[in-house]
Write a structure and sequence with these properties.
Number of domains: 1
Shape: globular
Order of helices and strands: EEEEEEEEE
Helix content: under 10%
Length: 128
């Protein structure tokens, strides 16, 4: 039997240190790093009501997972699509994209060397 590693570690995403971002015309946008490797960044994103993450290219494949609030996201074609809690937007490397919110947004962003499945697809063969 494996040894007991102790209690599970809990991360308070709301307590992560955030820094404001104003690049690319962003408004009401802040970001807090949770984890980073050479290949992947894991951050929390908050947008105050009426906030915007200005249009910019994705540094790598990017997944924005809405935790609370609303988001209007657009990719390379610029057409906005509304998403909410439990939904995610995916942008490919170098794809221009933008995120806006009406009521405010808290999201998790994973960016980097990601293999993403489609709904119902098992990414990890051990998941079967």
């Amino acid at each position: 039997m494996p040894s007991d590693p102790g209690p599970v570690r809990i991360l308070d995403l709301g307590a992560a240190a955030h820094r404001p971002v104003e690049a690319n015309g962003s408004v009401g946008f802040s970001i807090g790093a949770i984890g980073i490797t050479a290949e992947t960044h894991l951050v929390t994103v908050t947008l105050r009501p009426g906030g915007v993450v200005g249009r910019h290219p994705a540094a790598g494949r990017q997944l924005l997972v809405v935790l609370s609030g609303d988001a209007s996201v657009s990719g390379s074609n610029g057409d906005p699509v509304g998403i909410g809690p439990g939904e995610a937007a995916v942008w490919e490397p170098n794809e221009l994209h933008e995120t806006r919110t009406t009521s405010g947004l808290v999201a998790l962003v994973i960016e980097g060397d990601l293999d993403l499945g489609r709904p119902g697809h098992h990414v990890d063969p051990g998941d079967v």
